[in-house]
Specification:
Heat Shock Protein 90, 409 residues, binds adenosine-5'-diphosphate, elongated, alpha+beta, 3 domains, binds magnesium ion, five-stranded mixed sheet
Amino acid sequence: MKEIITKFSTKKYYIIIYLLIGIMTTGLVVKNPLYGEDNIGYYFHLLFAFLFASCLLIYPKYKKGIIRWLIVIMATLLFYTLFLIYPETGSTILLIYFIPTISIIFFDKKLFYASLFINQILIVATVIFLVNNGKTSLYPNVTSDPIGNIVTFVGSQVFIYFIFHFTSDRITKMQLYYEQVKHSERLKTTGELAAAVAHEIRNPLTVVKGYLQLYEQDKTLDESMKKSLPLLIDELDSAEQVISQLLSLSRPTMDQNTESVDIERAINSVAELLQSYGILNENKIEVVVEAGSYIEINKMELHQLLVNVVKNAIEASKAGGTILITAKKLKNEKIEIKVIDDGVGMSEEQMTLLGTPFYSLKTKGTGLGVMICNNIVKKYNGSIKYESLKDCGTTVAICFPSKSILHRG
Ligand code: ADP
Ligand code: MG
């Protein structure tokens, strides 16, 4: 639940607010014992009623932030003023008890806890003030049964807390469900789009790959030229895999072959492959890998995962920056691969958007890389975590169960 205004229509909101203003005006003028008298308390009543009404009226324009706090503060000032200047109207104490419920309408946790806490302090302070100034006799309803009133007060606060707790719990679940539905809806669209695009891309790729394979076998061609052909064919294979992967986003399958993959070799081959890509921007790739670490995975998918992450690191790096790739066994029999760059980094907001289909800040970006990585990691029971600081760099930590664990299981 983001806003109350989106739930009720704005029109309904204003009808309720005008009704409330009508009630407040009635309270100010109809049979008010202080009406027409030059009483300072009455002027405060008038002032806070006016400010409270104004805040409620402008709320739909601003909705978030300070306006919610202002509404609660104005309501607090108004309700306490009513309690203090009209002691004969016993029910004003109820208004005070229920001040924290205002933030329930906004579903603002911070505001709720703050108003619950501050309201309790204010109530105690008010009681002390009344006792010290000998005004308790003005509140026979409250003073004739102090214990009963304390119990009612504590009970009301616990009750309010429960309402808030359960409502916010339910709302959070609903929000989560809504996000999941939105996410899977997006994935579905991506899958459909991918299926359409894949068909168009696969054919030209096959043609190019076929020609490259022909050149590879062509004895008349210069050997130095042929040297890079396996690399190009490898990259085309990866491109084909990306297409299949994109297709599998809408129809996930587990039918791909897995094997025991040597992490050191996999990382070195990716580093070698992307070295030339990094050179364009004078970036260096350094590899520090513990030998003898294996994971059970589809080789191409691991390659795809690493290429995506390292490519992003290169693209984020400034000229001359270094990308460090490390891999080691952790104590919990997991293997952790880290790709560390000292590039542009990401803000918190950018981090929350990471992995959203088509989210890219690059002019030629696809915004699919991170999502594909997330999918691959999930498929092999791994985890992927991004730590980033704007303008300082990013660390991507990928964890996979090491092979021995899988075998034991
Ligand atoms: P693309 O690379 O096509 O933009 P990705 O899904 O791979 O798509 O990445 C999405 C976005 O995430 C990038 O555009 C970039 O803004 C951000 N990003 C990913 N990795 C890094 C990184 N190492 N440093 C900074 N930003 C990154
Ligand atoms: Mg990318």
